[in-house]
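User: Fold both of these, please.

Assistant: Here is the first one.
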Amino acid sequence: MPSLRLIVGLGNPGAEHLRTRHNAGFWFVDALAQREGVRFGVESKLRGETAKVSIGGDPVWLLKPITYMNASGSSVGAALRYWKIEPEEMLVVHDDLDLPPGTARLKFDGGHGGQNGLRDLFAHVGHGKFHRLRLGIGHPGHRDRVHGWVLGRPSKVDEDLMLDAIARSLDVLPLAVSGQYEAAMKQLHTNSRD
C-alpha cells in the first residue's frame, strides 16, 4: 500500500458549525495541526484551508474544504490534481452516524453510507478507493432527527468520547502514513472503547 500524502477533514466552515458533530473531520485535522504546531491558511484555488505537516519524516498535506460538507468533492478533487496525489494516497476523516461516540475505525474503499461529504467526493473522484477514518457520533434513534443531530453539538460526555477517539487515532497515524494500515487498524480497533 502507498503511504499517505493527503489527509482531508470533512466539515462545514464558520464559527456556528465549529463544535458540531458533523465537523468531526475538522476536529481531527485541527488537532493534528495543533499537535504539529502548524496553522491552516486559505488556498482559494483549492476552495479550502491547507497546512503541511511532517509525520514520521513524511510530508503530508492537510485539507479542510470550505465549500460546506455537501460540496466537499470539488475541493478534494482540485487538491488531488494540484498536488498530483492519487486517491489511494489520501485519508478522508469524517463523522459516522453508525458508530457510537468514542469509536474510530479505519477502512479502505466501500460505499459512502449516506454521508453527504463522501457522496460528493465519490462524484468528483469517480470511486471510493481511498482511505477513511470514521469517527463515531452516534445516532439520534430516528432518521427524521438525523439532520438536527449532525448539525447539533454533542453532550459534554459525547464530546469527550469523540476527542478521546481522535487522540487514539492520532497515535496510530504514523503507522497509516507510512503505509502500515493493517498495523494501524489493529492498534486503533483493539484500543477502541466500544
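And the second sequence with its predicted structure:
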Amino acid sequence: MTTSLDRETKPSGDGIALIGEDAAWTLATAALLAAGVPRGDAEDVARALVDTSLRGIDTHGLRLLPQYLDELRDGIADPKPTIQVVRDRGAGLLLDADGALGVVAGLAAARYAAERAERYGVAAVGVRESNHFGAASVYTRRLARAGLVGLAVTSAASRVAPFGGVEPLFGTNPISVAAGSGEGEFALDMATSQVCYGEIKQRRSEGRELDGGWATDPQGRPTGDPDAAHALSPLGGYKGQGLAMAVTLLGSVLTGTPPDWQLSQVGEGTAGRGRRIGHLVLAIDPGCFAGEQPFAAGLDELLTTVRQAPPSGDAPVLAPGDPQRANEQARRTTGIPLDDRTAALLSELADGLGLPGPSRRPPA
C-alpha cells in the first residue's frame, strides 16, 4: 500500500524544454524497439504517448516513456507478450495480457471491442495481467473515431484515501467516455480523485502550495503542503469515493485482478513480475439504438448547446475534450513542453540512439 508521495526534482530555471511531435514519436519508437518491442507495438505505444502529451495530459504522456522502458528492462512488462482470449461469450470477452505494456493490452481490447460491437451492437472486453495503460481516452477516442461510443476504466495503485479515511485505498481510477470526432468530439477523461497525482508532484517541484481539498497528511487532515501530502482526496468527497469504487468494481473485481491496494506504483514493481492491472473497455454502436444519423444529430445538439451556454465570466463554456483539442492545435506548432526530469531522460535516450532530442527555449 502507498504510504507517501514520492519526491520530484526542482526546475532548472534554464528555460522551457520542448520536443516536436515528429521527433518525439521517432525517439519513443526507437527507444521501444531497442527494448525489444516489435515495431507495430512500438509505434502504437509511441503514438499513444505523443498524442496524450499533445493534448496537454502531460502526466500520462511522454513522461511515462522512461518508466515503461524501466519496466521492460526489469521484466515487469513483456515486450513480446502472447495476448489471449481466455473467455468468450460473443459480446463479452476476457483477455489475458501476459504482462504486456498496458498500452498494447488496451489497444488490443479496443480492437476486439470495435469488431464485436459492429457484430452485436455492444461489446465489453475485460483485460487481466496487464500494466499501466496511460490515458484512458487513448482507447475511447479510438472507438469514437470508428463511429462507436467508447468507455474505458482501469485499476490503479493506491493514491486516494476514502472519504473520511487516512490511508490510500484507491488509485486515481480514471474513467473515460468518448463519442464523435474533430470539432464534434465528446471526450471525457477524468480521475476520480480531486486532482491527479502528477499535479502534486508538479507543485512540489515548483515549491507551490496545494489547492484546498487536494490532499491529506498522515493523520488524514487536509494539507496545502506538497511535502506533507500523504494521500489524495476523492473528487467531491463521498461521491468521488463511490466513483472510485465503481471503477474498481469494473476494472478489478469484474476482471478478476487484484484491488488497487495490492498493486505497485509505476516504476516501483518487482523485477520479473507483472503488475497485474485490470482494464475494461466497452464499445456501443449507436446504430443499434437511436441510429447513426439521429445519434450524430443529438451529439451535435448536446455539444452546441453546452458550448453556446451563457458564460458567467469572460471564458466560454467548454465541453469535455475542448481544452485538450486546443492544446493539441497549439503544441503541434510550438512543440511539447517537458518537465526537467523528463527532458533530461529523453535527452539521454536521444544521445544514446543518435537521434534529435529536446531543445530549450530561453526564459522570457
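DSSP finds ten helices and 13 strands in the chain.
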